[in-house]
Amino acid sequence: MRKSKALFAASKKVLPGGVDSPVRAFRAVGGDPVFMRSGAGAHLTDADGKSYVDYVLSWGPMILGHAHPAVVRAAERALRKGSSFGAPTEEELRLAEAVRAALPSMERLRFTSSGTEAVMSALRLARAYTGRELIVKFVGGYHGHADSLLVAAGSGATTLGRPDSAGVPAAWAKTTLCLPYNDIPAVREAFRRHGRKIAAVIVEPVAANMGVVAPEPPFLETLRELTKKSKTLLIFDEVITGFRFFYGGAQTGMRITPDLTTLGKIVGGGFPVGCYGGRREVMDLVAPQGPVYQAGTLSGNPVAMAAGLATLDVLRRERPYARMAEMTRVIVTELRGMGRFKGLPLQVNHVASMFTVFFTETHVRDMASAKTSDTKAYARFFHGLLERGVYFPPAQFEAAMLSSAHSTLDLERTLDAAARAIRRL
Ligand code: HOZ
Fold first, then answer.
1. Helix (H, G, I), strand (E, B), or coil: what is residue 354?
2. What is the pLDDT along the chain (425 residues), one digit of tens a residue?
3. 318 and 70 in contact (C-beta within 8 Å)?
4. In what order do the strands lie in the sheet with 51-54?
5. Separation of 342 CA from ligand 1 center, angstroms?
6. How many angstroms separate the Cα of 223 from the Cα of each of 190, 236, 333, 351?
7. Could you give the CA distance from residue 205 to residue 219 in angstroms, rounded to a whole number?
8. Ligand 1: which of 27, 150, 155 to mutate, most ligand atoms within 8 Å of CB?
9. Quick count: other Cβ atoms within 10 Å of Cβ 24?
10. C-alpha 149 to ligand 1 mean position (Å)
11. Exposed/middle/buried for 417, CB within 10 Å: 0-12, 13-18, 19+?
């Protein structure tokens, strides 16, 4: 940790809090963040040369593991041809076609440089299309850091005790209605009272920013029904879930068709990419086709597009999903067993290859129940793993993830570290 410590001390003199994104700073778990030097497959190596089995995976994009040869090759090839033109390229067309083939609800789509931008643009579009202002989001849902979404936000915002960010005008916050996740009566009531004023409902079809929380049927089905009835747009924020559970989105498995979808992370193959898209008649409002302005110099960047395309190509051919889900099931079952053995109140939520360990007796189904977790116990668990070379999310309200590069040996190393960490709690 010697080099990481020195790098962090120097970083704090030039970057606020020493980082470019708050959750990296380890405030939720204490101690100094580990500075990473390189990644290969399921492993990271830190600035001091220590290696870790990685369950953060850059918060989702690295589903094939780090520096996958096909992705490296594609990005290198693109880079040699020039890294940015500010003009259309064939790569954007090819990635757009691949995304649409996998997610047919995205009849038209646009690439941005981040998930935040994609979500922000989708909301602007929804407001323009409906001529309404209100947005419904769910408590603990995190959709990036656009103003109207930093209200009761999960992920790093909750972790830092700032679910409502300073600097968001009160008038903006008032346009966002926040409801508890999985709470159908609350949604019905909101639509009864405000239905004709709601431009969009934005939801993570599997919540990943209050920790992993699965939607309880018929929660999403009810959202679809109510939004349809009141001519509100339903936006699935699949920045995390897109291409994570299936070759497609969570919507693919659930057979629910949202009006708009936002993507990011995996679709950029580890490069800064976001994407939003949906029904043609809605997307046709986006400039230059329509009056909703949205632009970006690096949008559709050819190197990022090439990396995204290579990632999707490997996922489509190899379909690693069942294996990743099975390995996750093993981890989850073992962790639950360890908790029982030690007599710890432990909940391990999981959906396919994503999971979160909560230290609580309460079944976690929304942000209120997620918050019953003993976050100090999580911090001790995290550091126990870190010491033994296993890198978990450095915050309670996040998702741990597997990649296709995780091996049974990695699993054994993880479970051994977890057993020791839990024994010490
Ligand atoms: N909060 C994002 C996913 N849970 C990770 C990105 C970040 O905040 O740094």
1. strand
2. 899 999 999 999 999 999 999 999 999 999 999 999 999 999 999 999 999 999 999 999 999 999 999 999 999 999 999 999 999 999 999 999 999 999 999 999 999 999 999 999 999 999 999 999 999 999 999 999 988 887 787 776 666 666 677 888 888 888 999 999 999 999 999 999 999 999 999 999 999 999 999 999 999 999 999 999 999 999 999 999 999 999 999 999 898 999 999 999 999 999 999 999 999 999 999 999 999 999 999 999 999 999 999 999 999 999 999 999 999 999 999 999 999 999 999 999 999 999 999 999 999 999 999 999 999 999 999 999 999 999 999 999 999 999 999 999 999 999 999 999 999 99
3. no
4. 36-40, 43-46, 51-54, 390-391
5. 31
6. 11, 11, 32, 20
7. 10
8. 155
9. 19
10. 14
11. buried
Tokens of 212: 């992993």
> How far, in Å, is the centroid of ligand 1 from the Cα of 59?
6
DSSP string, 36-66: EEEEEBTEEEETTS-EEEESSGGGTT-TT-B
Q: Are β-strands 354-358 and 400-401 bridged in parallel, bridged antiparallel, or unpaired?
A: antiparallel
Which pTM does this prediction carry? 0.97
**Is 3 an active-site residue?**
no
Asked about 142 being catalytic, the answer comes back as: yes
Q: Say if CB 89 and CB 305 are below 8 A apart.
A: yes
CA-based nearest residue to 336, from 307, 358, 318, 306: 358
Residue 374, number of CB atoms within 10 A of its CB? 17
Alpha-carbon gap, residue 191 to 71, rounded angstroms: 45
For tokens 């919540």, what's the residue? 207
CB of 140 within 6 A of ligand 1: the answer is: no
Distance 119 CA to ligand 1 centre (A): 14
Active-site residue 20, yes or no?
no
**Residue with CA closest to ligand 1 atom 3:** 59
Domains of the chain (ranges; CATH) run 2-63+320-423 (3.90.1150.10), 69-317 (3.40.640.10)
Q: Count of alpha carbons within 13 Å of 132, Cβ hemisphere only?
A: 18
